[in-house]
Write a structure and sequence with these properties.
mainly alpha
């Protein structure tokens, strides 16, 4: 049971890190652009999906299962997260940043 949960948690690391990093950007605690954050998280998510697949294959082989079709599913899910979810989070973070700082710029005049 734990063998299936650990790769799923590994796949969630990149989106959670991106949300944390973008929230720090909105609060002006970091100066990294949203595009750079999104690109780094996409690359990290692809690497983490390979790691999740490897962990799953090792768990299957330890349990005596020879078919690794489920493990390849973690790779596919990780790539889909990287291509769909992470850019959406980046766009939403960029929009929030734009509107929060646009409002602050108007009040300074």
């Amino acid at each position: 049971m734990l063998i299936g949960i650990i790769p799923l948690l590994i796949l969630l690391i990149a989106p959670v890190l991106q949300i944390v990093w973008l929230s720090r950007r909105v609060k002006n605690k970091t100066n990294s652009p949203a595009g750079l954050i999104t690109l780094l998280m996409m690359i990290l998510c692809i690497f983490l999906s390979v790691i999740a697949m490897t962990v799953s294959v090792n768990g299957f082989s330890a349990a005596g299962i020879r078919c690794a079709t489920g493990a390849v599913g973690f790779l596919v899910i990780g790539v889909m997260i990287s291509l769909i979810i992470i850019p959406i989070i980046g766009i939403i973070g960029g929009i929030i940043y734009h509107y929060r700082h646009k409002k602050k710029d108007l009040t300074t005049f």
